Amino acid sequence: MPTRHLFTIGYEGMDIAAFISRLREAEVRLVVDVRELPLSRKKGFSKSAFREHLTTAGLIYSHVPELGCPRPIRNQYRSDSDWTRYTADFLSYLETQESRVRELARYSRSATACLVCYEADFNLCHRTYVAREAQRKGAPLVKHLTARTAFLDQPFLAAA
Question: Which pTM does this prediction carry?
Answer without folding.
Answer: 0.93
